[in-house]
Amino acid sequence: MYMVESKVGAIGCMLLSLFFLGTWPALLTMLERRGRLPQHTYLDYSFTNFLGAIIIALTFGEFGRSTVDQPSFLTQLTQDNWPSILFAVAGGVVLSLGNLSTQYAWAFVGLSVTEVVTASITVVIGTTMNYFLDGKINRAEILFPGVGCFLIAVFLAAAVHESNASDNKAKLSSVSTDPKNEAGLYDNSMFDEKYKSSVTKDVEDLSTIEEEMPEFGTADFLIDLENKRAIKVLGKSTFIGLAITFFAGACLSLFSPAFNLATNDQWHALKDGVPHLTVYTAFFFFSLSCFIIAIILNINFLYRPVLDLPKSSIKAYLADWNGRKWALLAGLLCGFGNGLQFMGGQAAGYAAADAVQALPLVSTFWGILLFGEYRRSSRRTYIYLSSMLLMFIVAVSILMASAGQRTAEKLQSPTH
Q: Where exactly are the transmembrane stretches of this chain (predicted)?
């Protein structure tokens, strides 16, 4: 079994995890904005997300010789370690609920704001819990100022969203008051035929709409986006999006502490002589429960959709290949990203590993590059956005600087 033991190796895992975890949300957002039902997308994502855990378990978890203290993945499947498995399962449940919620939140408040708020809540709650669970191996005088910076970033993100929503409302009001727009702001008759026709085109064929798309940030762009996207958001309260976002953040803040308990048994739930779960065994059960919850909820959402989405079916899902390869890729990126985060956390402390919550920096880049977020916004919005990203960079840097190194003694007795 391969284990990351050095601080350098742990930071390498975190950086790679950061890129993966910051990219997969952009792929799912892209598909929703092109009209693919989120239920279909998330089902595809769930299969490859679990596949990533299986690949990690059967490779890193099986490399080398199995020992009494560090048994291989397959060896641990036969051991009496159910208390730790249940912690891993609990972590997978809250992660699944959090990730599923963010998929709907992205539509309302944008990729950038959603990721910053959820990541910041995750750090404020989850990192504090992990600090004490890890036996305080991270430097508190550095760690907690970093947590404070994340908290400030939450409020700045809310300000960014509110300011940007006001900007969009002002842009759209000019369309709704246009004498030519007799049907009203949200009537389909206001849409140009060239925009309507793009809805029926393959979501994977970028070139078909490249020349017809209006400029990013204009009122026409917002109207065109609303017409094509799966989740309709114009005219709905911004509170809905923020409420979903904060619920997702609360769920996501608990998955890392639960995984920490699964691998280090701080509460001494295992029987004497039973080795702690390795990262790979814990990650397998963690991902299994995440997969089961996602499948159950999304199949239910096919027939009982939320947020006024159209109904679907298993048959329709199986026949929907538009954008499927991107959803499958997103699942793999998330699976490997989570696995790398846990591998780094086991070596350097899970509190420091929460630095991968810098993923909004990656997501914001994709949001601006691919989706035109914040184009043609007001000066106030740009000031809030710049302040949010700057505070986030400071917070992540401080959190990385707090990294410790888990010793063999702490691996056996994490509460010392």
A: 6-30, 42-61, 81-98, 105-130, 142-161, 238-259, 279-303, 324-344, 350-371, 383-403
